Amino acid sequence: MFGNGVKLTKIFGIELWIDYSWLIVFILVMWSLASGYFPHEYPGLGKTTYWIMGAVSAILLFVCVLLHELSHSYVAQKSGIAVPKITLFIFGGVAQISEEPRSAKTEFNIAIAGPICSFMLAVIFWILAKSDFASDDKRLFAVFNYLAFINIALVVFNMIPGFPLDGGRILRAYLWNRWQDVKKATYIVSQIGSRFGIALMLLGLVSIFFGNLIGGIWFIFIGLFLNQAASSGYQMTILRDVLSGAKVKNIMTSNVISVPESLSLNDLVQNYFYHYLFVSFPVVSDGGQLVGMISIKQVKDLPKDSWHEKKVGDIMVKAPEIPVLSPDDEALSALNLLMRNELGRIPIVDTGKLVGIITRRDIMTFLMIKSDLGV
Ligand SMILES: [Zn+2]
């Protein structure tokens, strides 16, 4: 459902994306304001005026949600956690925070930043609504008043103490600090989060029963989304807990199949891709140094009749651009890297030499063995 969109711009090194599903919200908000709320609350303005007010409000709402996410991201980056991307999608915004906070205090600071931002925006719009130039113009007053109200609504909704909402993260930080047990704290707030999701779905069913079809479907979808996010958030915490303490060298595969730079693409396809069924291979020099990576993606973009004359070294991704890990890095960093970059395999390098490779499958196998043995 998600994952298609357009990149708007880059702020503080964070890419801002709009998922196409966000257009649905935009149109719904604009339409319900222009044809329902504004004409009902502020009668006597023209039809075109209502639509312009609706569009302006929807765009400003978009900016408010973006600022909310940016404030989470800003604090995360200040705490040393990278935020590569913010995406606005059908249920609001998500800042793609590259790893979970490592302390309760960091978690609290990141979580509280969003609601504080939305609250400040509500105050600003409320002051604007009460200002002189808005009191002369009903249209301005209506838009400012609506934005003050919607930002307060954002604060209230986000402060519900169920994971993954901000309130859930704040409660988790509090319990985590109190119990010194992040797993238990996450379990509690995930339970609250998923029950809140179920309650929203029931509310949706009741709304549909009483004739509010669109509102009801909306509640059901948000409920489903929250319910799912709550349980996957808990699974992620368990995963991190099991992996913590393990090193890359405990998990990596040591005898790596690598290829030389001088190999022709024909040979690569016939004797490596078809033979070993991996989607990428590390490229090493005669001395065993990692010089690059070659993947199916680079090969398939080239016409087949050029495969016999081109060599691996011509089209590989060169070493400085490849993310690598060292054998003594934490296994958690490998997981973070694999997830953040959607990489299939990460080469493990010790003083420039290729000593292993790590894949998602390696991590899964490690987790399975550890959980089978009940450690
Ligand atoms: Zn938030």
Work out the helix count.
14
Q: Bin the strand percentage.
A: 5-15%
Binned, the helix content reads: 55-70%
Low-confidence stretches: none
* Distinct small molecules: zinc ion
Quaternary structure: single chain
Average pLDDT confidence is 88
Q: Report the end-to-end length measured between terminal Cα atoms.
A: 37 Å
Determine Rg (CA atoms, Å): 26 Å
Major sheet description: 4 strands, mixed
Shape: elongated
In total, the number of strands is 9
> Which sequence of SSEs, written as H and E, runs from N to C?
EEHHEEHHHHHHHHEEHHEHEEH
The number of distinct structural domains comes to 2
Which class best fits the helix and strand makeup? alpha+beta
Main sheet strand line-up: 1-2-3-4
